[in-house]
Amino acid sequence: MADNTVDEKAAFEAIKVPSQSNKVYNRECVFSFQNPYSPGGLYVNLKTFQGVGPDFLPLDQKRNRFPIYLHQQWKRKAKKDAEEDKPTNAPTKFAIGVEGGFQLDDQKIDIIKINTVVVVGPDGKKQKSYPFDGSDKVLPKNVVQSVNSVLARTDSTESKDIFAGSLEEEVKESKFAKDLVQLDNGKKIPNDHEKWACEDSGLKKNLWLNLSTGYIGSGRKETGGTEAAIKHYEDTGRKYPLVVKLGTITPEKVEIYSYAENAMVSDALIDKHLAHWGLDRKKLFQTDKDMTQLSIEAQSKAFEASLITGEGEKQEVATGVGYQGLVNFGNTCYLNSTFQLLFSVPEFKKRYVEFASRVFERSPSDPAADITTQLSKLATALNSDKYQGETDEHKKLKEDTKLPELSDPAAEVKPKMLKKAVARDHWEFSGGRQQDAQEYILHVFQAISRDAKQFPSTPGNSDLTKLFEFASEEKTVDAQSKQVGYKIQPGQTFLQVPIPKPQQSTSKKEEDPEAAQKESGEPKEKKSKTASSSSSATVAAGAKMETVEYEACFKRMLEAYTLQGYTSPVTQQKGVAYRSSRMRTFPQYLFIQMLRFEQVDMTKEGKGYQIQKIRRMANMPVELDIKMLASTGLQKGETALPKAKKAKPQAKPEIVVAVTSMGFSQNAGIRAALATQNAGAEQAVNWVLMHSQDADINDPIQDGDDDDEEEEVDAGKVSQVAAMGFNQKHAIKALKATDGDVARAIDWLFSRAGQLDDDSSSEQKKKKIEPGQNTDSPKYKIMGFISHIGDRATSGHYVCHILKDNGKWVLYNDNKVTYCEKPPLGLGYIYLYRRV
Predict the structure, then answer these.
(1) Which residues of 410-447 are buried (b: 16+ CB within 10 A; e: fewer)?
(2) pLDDT exceeds cutoff 80 at 486
(3) Phi, psi (5° rounding) for residue 669?
(4) What pLDDT score was predicted for residue 753?
């Protein structure tokens, strides 16, 4: 019989206060979503400071062999003195849980916290409990100090920006504020809102004061005004751009708009500028809706009315295994939608559910930071109904507080630990801002692939990202020689598909492009790339949206584009070439990204380059045949381009000497000179110092395969990127991936630190694919898709639709999971298909 005896005295003496370097997980189990509100509460190991639920006490004992825990049990009840009739201030930010945003319901609820220190035997069973009240009457002083510290610490997965979810843009200081011109025309504005009126129409609402002239005019027509304020700006020669909305001025805030900067702005001298016109913020209060409140109303209506969320459709709640929602804990709808879609793939379920117990047993010392552990944790939750349903206790709380939408924290799945584990080497995904779901999927795949390589002995280990990979075949036609080159681009994850405008039915427009241009008021080429204002208006009004069939999208994708400055391998002269791409292989699972966002040149309108959304229906089918995308290889009648003959680069001897004089090898000197494009001794020395630990730093340079692609990368740009400490190969790769943009290339490389050589693995080299005919089966069936609501991929809202095995569609809108009768197949952003 196993000995379950615990040396309590020795264990107490070993307990220490967690230092700032110690991670404390005191709000959630590292292996499940059990928390202090859950039945049985949460146990925090006072050696590792990791929380575990009751079900994982035996495992924690097996892993850590330390018997003392802080046991937290929390319950909620309605406050007896809740001020039910107290008015709630309207939100001033499109945000959740932050000052001025949509507020939480804590003011109506008391939280009762019961803390005990417990002794747990090696079998995971409790042996003794000590009530904890913060004093050292019962427990040793060091134990009390440790527990108090654990209770006071913020959970290591939490940060301010995770809880505060905001969709509003950052308001910047106006460049006109510091030296604002204010006319001395003797005009004074009374501190009485009843005496304010539009000087043009007499309107009493939606009034804007020009801070330079003192003119009061009403706002734009869409907000109920006559546009007198902006007309005054135009009539005065656009010299006075700053206006303040009168009804929003309070001692705490004021809303300022700059017509010249086309944005809401701040003004550090606003009190002085208001005082010039006799206004005192201390005497004013809000009498009108500010622009943020108007935006909240408009966007909220858009969210509710959107086709994507099933507005107007009977929505039956879906429950049971496979229907678990995920809580949005601050702009994390992109994350929620991503993992709902990924875990609809059978191989993901098998990898992270069937092997979960073994993964947990062999998890590293910090399970919260381990990607495989956290993926298994989430997969297990999604494949159960443990966090669904409602207790009688929670039903009573909702009745007592009159909060029918109140959520139960014991039945919430918030993948905070997974978010942090995946984003640990990516600052952008680590924050609380909204992200592009497509970019996030790529980052998740990189993390999964890297984890599979680093920890090959993990139970059930396999790099599942390979199931989604395909190779494309690029065809380049040299316009000078008419000869053709084919090249394989392996390791592709997304098939990126454009959404062209529908074919014009009027022959006049087809025959006379200038007539179409005159009618639209913009160049034909530009109009074809962007969503027109009329299109946006019809969407907002709920009218019929422009529709294009998916075949037209694929045809546009297959069209060749022009390469300027292409050096012909035949003539050695610069000219043009035409490039197109097809699929050399078809993957088992196919991701399709509809290119719904694009950069538009609006410099003529004074707005620079803007990201605009293409608002068109692109009807994707449930069953898809992509035979038209299959590669062909060299065709009859085509002449293959010869491989480009490039002179082997030579390192400048004086640069190599400068490096070797510092004690480095000859080969290291050659590598440094070539990596920095022979820019100079200083650059080469800096490079070799940063790369001195590279495994191949002293190896001879090997001749690579001839590749005409490198000729198309600007050597000067390669040098600029390499000067940041990157080698030439990585610099070229980054510049290709970012269309030659140096700044973006550097960011691309920094965001992929430690992952840059993944594409050159020995496994991929063994499976080299040659250009040729694609003979894979081209038939696919849809599994699900992610849709986006909003104007930009990095703002707005994401939801996910999944087709279940029973033939029913289910909408995953964060924590809300419902059946969907009419999925918006034409409005998807990212589609997932499986080959059949």
Answers:
(1) bbbbbbbbbbbbbbebbeebbebebbbbbbbbebbbbb
(2) yes
(3) -65, -40
(4) 54
